[in-house]
Structures are given as structure tokens and as C-alpha cells.
Amino acid sequence: MTIAIRVENISKKYKIGAAPGKFRYGMLRDQLAEIPRKLFRRSEGRVGVDYIWALKDVSFDLEEGRVLGIIGRNGAGKSTLLKVLSRVTEPTRGMISVRGRVGSLLEVGTGFHPELTGRDNIFMNGAILGMKRAEIAAKFDEIVEFSEVAQFIDTPVKRYSSGMYLRLAFAVAAHLEPEILVVDEVLAVGDAEFQRKCIGKMNDVANQGRTVLFVSHNMSAILRLTNESIVIQKGQLVKRAPSPEAVDYYLASGQAQAGERAWDADEVPAASAPFRPISLRVRDSRGAVADTFRSTEPITLEMEYRLDAPITGLRVGVYLSTVRGEYVFTSFDVDDAAQYEKFSTRQAGHYTSKCQIPADFLNEGRYILGVNASSFGVRRYFMDENALAFTIDPMGAPGMQWAEQRQGPVRPRLDWVIETVR
Amino acid sequence: MTEITKREPTTIYIKPTTGLAALNLGDLWQYRELVVFMIWRDIKVRYKQTLLGASWAVIQPVMTMLVFTFLFGRVAKMPSDGIPYPIFSFAGLLPWGLFTTALNTASRSLTSNHNMISKSYFPRLVLPLASVLGGLVDFVIALVILIGMMIYYNITPSWSALWAVPVFIFLTIITALGVALWLSAINVQYRDVGYALPFITQFWLFITPVAYSSKVISDQWQLIYSINPMAGVVNGFRWALLNSGNSPDLSVAVSTGIALLVLVTGLVYFRNMERTFADTI
């Protein structure tokens, strides 16, 4: 097999303050004010300048026609890696050789101009993605059909709904037919039907023998679409393994100890303020923090956090899902109307929100616990969809006399009554 | 699959770049269609949602001409080389308008397209280049007005206009592009450029013989005066179209030299900064 992508010791250094996401640009005045200081302290010119390595010595090869998942927490360096791969930004050190055109779905809608019609934007966007005019014209009908906006194709895109806009943008990018496709989380937006289409398109691309790099926070999507994944942590490649193993490694890696996920100050985005997550713990029936529970015992979920200022309408809750990505439930600490009244404004302070998953509820398997702190319709303060993972052991669960895998994420003990009908 | 996509993939090497080799003009050639698309987009969008639309391309220079004619022609009685003042100033305003439009849009081209830069790869040079060339459309519209005025005032251009006008347009483009390369790259990091730009263009207008004739400058200063490439352009325009003033001489060579110098240094600076555009914009 030919190698499609060879990444050799790629490192990327950012000056702090210039890191992406932190929008800040210097003032010429500041630079001018620096001049006298620099003149007198030439040797210390670098003092006070902080750098972070967004990527550090990342190396991997990828064969043609493979689909590789890239997983890592926010700020781990995934986006930087994709940006370097798609030549948006230059690496500081190292080299990548890429065989063929890299099309990236992180550039969905780039260059779209609100005043231009859908038709014009297709051509514009295609040109930015490196397509030739003839190539775009040849695929035009296909693109329009895929985007489902045919009747508005001569309307300026500023009149489009956000869904239409996104569909059109994705359609162009999806039809670029690059040798290497980079997909970054775009699937998180759009309705279910459209997501299905997108995933279908991605599969097509992979089946045509093209190489796909897929970045997602959605572990089920990673497991469904990729066979192999790499895990990036603090700018370094820490694991490359078949996807189920890589996902498990990733989920376990954030845990301070088995059954507890603690957030360091630098892991919490500034946008979360005044909400400050401290830790999420799962406890067994005896109150011990653990990572494996019996299906027959109640499990306590405990979220500890601080509020630096009062928040009105705050709800702190959890998502529970299986490692396959199916949601089991979502629950918030003020779901109860009376409770919601009582905590309509939560004062600044140090809190825990606790709840219990009843005994005889979950089926055997591995589960992922996510956290969400938000004020409905106002703001989402904090979210970590993959905060913690734990395992349920089915010992003593109903139906254990048969050595079979029970379908479904729940395994309730139901009161069956058997009656003779006469 | 269509024919077009059936090609042997070429291998691209992504690594830290150094020096002038990194200028990568070959890449720019590859993306020439994008330049055309960008120009086309800018033109299509330029007068969207305006009442008067493309007539602004005419209104702007004509109004300026009227103001100049009243202020400098009537009130201040500036000499205009024996040519009616309205057409004298309009012939100067034409290349001047091309220059300022090009300079203004190109200097802001990177920042106004920041989402393109931070999300996808293409030679960044495409943006200022397309902005500069996009100004030509307004120029052509205004040129029609000038031709109308020449008929009205019964002025016949010399034959040399056939080569001189394109040459001076080219010189204007080069000058605007060179300065814009510097300013657009600086603008990515320091937004001060946005504030300095109106001042720069205003000051530049004073040192360019648009409202007045360059003959008012005494001979010993002429060579220094021609350091401003736009002075050479405006004089050249008047000479070719209105048969006024001196034919281009050494001063045009000086102007061209300066313009090329700014362009080349601008390219080098631009390329140096280009590496970090996506990170700092």
C-alpha cells in the first residue's frame, strides 16, 4: 500500500496570546514602546515571552484508503494538527508529506458571501477549495441536489436559514473529491437526516479508496466510522490503536483515579465563568469511589463545582450514554419543579449536586458520563460530553442464568406475573 | 467519476519555509482562477443594496472634479497648463481614483477575509492582488466619462496614448500593490493601519499633481518630486490624453524604479508575515 500521509515530528509553537481562539492582536504602539527596552537589554529580548507547544513531535503514517479517527480533549491539539495538514498554518518544526489534494470539511462555507446567491457561492467556495471552474460546473447539479436548496439557488445566501446555509456549504466541500478528506466535527450541526447523508458521503469517500481523517467528540461516530484512531493529549500523540481500544484509553485518561474526573484550572475554558467544575465522581453503594459497579447496586453520581457569581436558572446535569454512543438518559438537578423554584438563583459558593442511579437499572457494559451546566435558552456554561467512563458488572442481574448478551442499555428487574388463562 | 478527477496525485511537502523560495509564485499561478473569482465577487458585491448602484463609480470622480473645479479652478485660480480645469483635474482624478480604491481595498483585504485565511489554504497573495485588479472596473467606467469630456472639449489624444495609458495604468497597479502588500500584512497584526490609511491617502493626494499642475514645482525639486510614482502617472496621463506638459522623461524611470522597489520589498515582507497570518489574524 502507498502511504497517503506521512507526518514526521511535527511541532507547532504558539506565542501565548496568539493562540487560536484567543482573539488578540498587538498594537503598534506597544511594539514601539518596546524598542528602547530591547535596545538596552538585547540579550534578554526573549524574556517574558511565553510559548506553548500546541503540537510536539507528532509522527504517524497513514496508508491510502484508510479512515483514521483523531480523538483528544478540547485544546489537546487536534485542530492545530488539522490546520497544519490543510496548510492553513505552517508547522514550527518537522515535515508532512501528503499524497494528493487535501480537502477539509473544517472549511465549510469559507468565502461564502452573504450578498451572493447560492449559485455564485458554490463557484466561489469551490475555487477557494482549489477546484477548477470546469470541475465545479460538472458537479454543479449534483451539489445542488445534495444540498436540497434547489429552489433557492438564485437567492442571496443571507436569506437562507442556518440549516440551508450549512447544507449548501457542506455539499460543496463534500464534492471536492480530494484524495484526502479531513472531517472536523461538522456533523455536530444540522438535522439528523442531513447528518445521515453526511456520514453516508464520508463512507463513500472511504470506499472509493480515499483517505479520511475524522475528528470528533462523538465516540459512537468514531467507533462507527473508523477502525483505527490516534489519541492526542497536550499536543502529543499518546496512543494509536484500533478504535475501541483508543476510545477506551481516551476515556480513562482524563480520570484522576478510577471513577473520578477532576478538572484542572487550565482545562476549564474561560467562557465557563462563573461556573467552575471541580470534579465528577461515581460512588458504589458503600460510598467508595469506583469504576466498576454491580448492576444490582445503586450508583451515586456526584458533581462538585464552584460558582464565582450567582447564576439564575442554572441547571447542572449529566448525560449517560453507552460507549456505542446511544444515550441512556439526560437528567438535571432541578428537573423537579419544586426544586427548580427553590434554586431559581444559585448564589456564589461551593456545591455538590448528587443523584442516584437506582439498582437493577443498567445493563452490563461500559458507560460514559457527560456533564452539562447551563441556563436553558440563555447560556451553556460548561459541557464535557465524555467526562468519565465506568463499567457495569451484571453479577446477580435478572436473567443471569443464561450466558447471553442482553440487548439494550437497561436491564430492569421487572415484576413478571405468569398466569394460566383458562 | 468524471474525467477531471482522474489524475495522478502529486505529493505536497508541508514544512517550515524559509527565504524567498517560499514566495511560491507557482502556487499563485495554480490559483489564478481564484483571483478571477475574487475580483468577480468583489464587483458583484460592491454596489449591492445601494440605491444608485454602479453609478457611484461615476458620481465619485465627477463630484470631486466639480469641487476641485470650483475650489482650485475658480476660487484659487490654479494654473492648469492651458487646458480647461474640469478636464485637467478629471484626467488626474482618474488614475488617482484607481490608486486609492486599489490601495484601500487591498490593504484591508486580508482582515476582511479573515475567515478564509484562518480556515483554508490558498496563496494569501490572491487577496490583495484581486482587490487591486478589482479597482480597474470602476476605472474603466470613469474612463468613458473622460472620453465624453474629451469630445465635449474637443481634445484629441496623441497616438502615444495607445501605449502610454496601459503603461501608466500598470504603474498605478504596481504602486498600489506594493504599498498594499506592506499595509495589508501589517494590518493583520496591527489594526492601526485602518486608522492611518485615510490620512496616508489624503497626504498622498497633496504630493500628487491632481488638483494642480506639476509645473508649480520648481525644477530643482522635480526629481525628488518624482519619487512619488503617482506623480509620474498623473503627469503621464495628462501628457498622453490631453497633450499637456512634458513627455515622460527620467522622472518616469525614477517613479518606476521606486514602485518596483516597494513591490519587491512588499512581496518579501508579505511572504515573511504570511506564515503567521492564520495564527495572528
Description:
The complex is a heterodimer of chains A (422) and B (281). Chain A has 422 residues and is an alpha+beta fold. Chain A has nine helices and 21 strands. Helices cover 24% and strands 34% of the residues of chain A. In chain A, the strands form five sheets. Chain A has a six-stranded mixed β-sheet, with helices on both faces. A five-stranded antiparallel β-sheet of chain A has the order 10-11-12-14-19. In chain A, strand 16 and strand 17 (327-332) form a beta hairpin. Chain A is globular and about 70 Å long. Chain B has 281 residues and is an all-alpha fold. Chain B has one domain (3-280). Helices cover 69% and strands 1% of the residues of chain B. Chain B has helices spanning 25-30, 32-46, 56-75, 85-107, 109-112, 114-119, 126-152, 161-189, 192-206, 222-225, 229-242, 250-280; one strand at 11-14. In chain B, helix 3 packs across helix 4 (85-107) and helix 7 runs antiparallel to helix 8 (161-189). Chain B is globular. The interface between A and B is large, with 54 and 43 residues.
Task: Give the helices and strands, then pairings.
The complex is a heterodimer of chains A (422) and B (281).
Chain A: E1 3-15, H1 28-40, E2 51-63, E3 67-71, H2 78-85, E4 93-99, E5 102-104, H3 118-128, H4 133-147, H5 162-174, E6 180-184, H6 192-207, E7 211-215, H7 219-225, E8 228-233, E9 236-242, H8 243-253, E10 255-257, E11 260-262, E12 275-283, E13 292-294, E14 299-307, E15 311-312, E16 314-322, E17 327-332, H9 337-342, E18 345-346, E19 349-357, E20 365-375, E21 379-393
Parallel strand pairs in A: 3-7, 3-8, 5-6, 6-7, 13-21
Antiparallel strand pairs in A: 1-2, 1-4, 8-9, 10-11, 11-12, 12-14, 14-19, 15-18, 16-17, 16-20, 20-21
Chain B: E1 11-14, H1 25-30, H2 32-46, H3 56-75, H4 85-107, H5 109-112, H6 114-119, H7 126-152, H8 161-189, H9 192-206, H10 222-225, H11 229-242, H12 250-280
